[in-house]
Structures are given as structure tokens and as C-alpha cells.
């Protein structure tokens, strides 16, 4: 149990927003700690941090966590991997879903679709951009793509402005009015590990340790599952 009135400032990837909205009130109740959260794509958070922004802890893509540890911004040894996330695709609710069951079908769908939306700085968007280049259809897809600098790619799909959305499953699940029809096929899928780590300057080490323990609890595992995430227990 932490002492009353302790505050914890947390930076978090957007992929964790719905989960944190569900679990943080229970964490605060158990620990008497007050948690404030600022959300952003991992790349955006990393840019802000390198420009001087600070919190007590961060939840973000593990590779970015490692980079910040090497730069002595995050505490070495504090990284805790707690969840794995896959990339999925969505269409507007009520719209027929295309076939992406194989790598070949996935490529054909990308070439034949009217339009597609992916993120510029999110882990899924950066991976998707590299994938387009790898499979040789970067120019064709980018010509009809909306690349969001931030936010949820499902939103323009829900409004009927874009045909397909690509993003982390948990981010697509934050948008109403869309149908998440499939994850990317195994041959082109990339699972992303999200981790928790503490900043070197934090004075809230005990609260962060309590949060780390809480993130591996059955209650959190259930919340992660409900948002299309795979807990790493």
C-alpha cells in the first residue's frame, strides 16, 4: 500500500487508452495514488521526451523504451513487458469485408481498394509503411492513402470517407461504427510488445512498482483481452 496523495504522471501509447480508462480507477483505489495520463503515438512521445518532456513512467513500444534506456532517460532495469498487440484492418459497419486471409489476398486487397488510412507515427503505421515497400506496392497504395499524423485510423472509415483502416487491434476497438474484420495474415503480421518503464528522475518508484505488479494481475489480463490485446504474464 502506498501512502495517500501520491501522484503518478504517466505517458502512454494510444493503444492502451481504453484499457487504462478501465483499470486505473481500480489501481488508484488500491494504492491511494492519483494517476494522470498523457496519450500519444510512441514516436510522438519519444520526440517530446527527447525535447525535455518528463513523466514518472511510460507505457510504449518496447523498442522505443530500450532506446530511451540507452540514452539514460529511462531507468535501466525498469522495463516490464506486459502485453503483445497485433495489427488489424477494419471497414465501415455494414460494408462487405475484403479477403486478407493470405499474404497474396492481402496484397490484392491493398491494390484493389478505393482508399486506405494508416498512421504516420504509430507503431502499426510505421510497420505498415515499411511493409508496403517490402512487398513492392508502396507507390500504388500511398497514392490513395490517408496518412494520419495522429489519432485513430478507424474514424474516417466510420464517417465513410475512407474504405479501409489499418492500426493496432486495440486502437481500432476504440472506434464505433466500424467492423474489424481480420488481423493481418501471419506472413505479414508484426506483433508489437508494449512495456512499462520509469524515468530516471522519478520520485515515485514505489508507486511504479505497485503499477508493475498490478499490470500482471488477473483483472488487468481480462481488461487487456477485452481490448484485443494479449497479456504477457
From TrEMBL:
Alphabetical list of SUPFAM superfamilies matching this protein: Periplasmic binding protein-like II
Record InterPro entries: ModA/WtpA
Any one GO molecular function term: molybdate ion binding
Any single biological process term in GO: molybdate ion transport
Alphabetized PANTHER family for the sequence: BLR4797 PROTEIN, MOLYBDATE-BINDING PERIPLASMIC PROTEIN
Protein name per UniProt: Substrate-binding domain-containing protein
Amino acid at each position: 500500500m502506498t501512502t495517500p496523495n501520491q501522484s503518478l504522471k504517466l505517458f502512454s501509447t494510444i493503444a492502451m487508452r481504453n484499457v487504462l480508462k478501465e483499470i486505473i480507477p481500480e489501481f488508484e483505489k488500491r494504492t491511494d495514488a492519483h494517476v494522470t495520463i498523457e496519450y500519444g503515438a510512441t514516436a510522438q512521445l519519444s520526440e517530446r521526451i527527447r525535447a525535455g518532456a518528463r513523466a514518472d513512467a511510460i507505457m510504449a513500444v518496447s523498442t522505443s523504451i530500450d532506446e530511451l534506456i540507452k540514452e539514460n532517460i529511462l531507468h535501466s532495469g525498469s522495463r516490464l513487458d506486459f502485453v503483445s498487440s497485433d495489427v488489424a484492418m477494419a471497414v465501415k459497419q455494414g460494408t462487405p469485408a475484403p479477403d486478407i486471409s493470405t499474404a497474396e489476398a492481402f496484397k490484392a486487397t491493398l491494390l484493389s481498394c478505393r482508399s486506405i488510412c494508416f498512421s504516420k507515427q504509430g507503431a502499426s503505421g510505421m510497420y505498415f509503411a515499411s511493409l508496403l515497400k517490402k512487398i513492392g506496392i508502396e507507390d500504388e497504395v500511398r497514392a490513395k492513402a490517408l496518412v494520419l499524423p495522429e489519432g485513430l485510423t478507424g474514424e474516417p472509415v466510420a464517417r465513410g470517407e475512407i474504405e479501409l483502416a489499418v492500426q493496432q487491434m486495440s486502437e481500432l476497438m476504440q472506434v464505433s461504427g466500424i467492423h474489424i474484420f481480420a488481423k493481418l495474415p501471419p506472413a505479414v503480421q508484426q506483433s508489437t510488445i508494449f512495456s512499462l518503464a520509469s524515468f530516471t528522475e522519478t520520485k515515485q518508484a514505489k508507486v511504479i512498482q505497485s503499477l508493475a505488479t498490478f499490470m500482471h494481475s488477473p483483472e488487468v489480463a481480462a481488461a487487456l483481452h477485452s481490448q484485443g490485446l494479449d497479456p504477457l504474464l
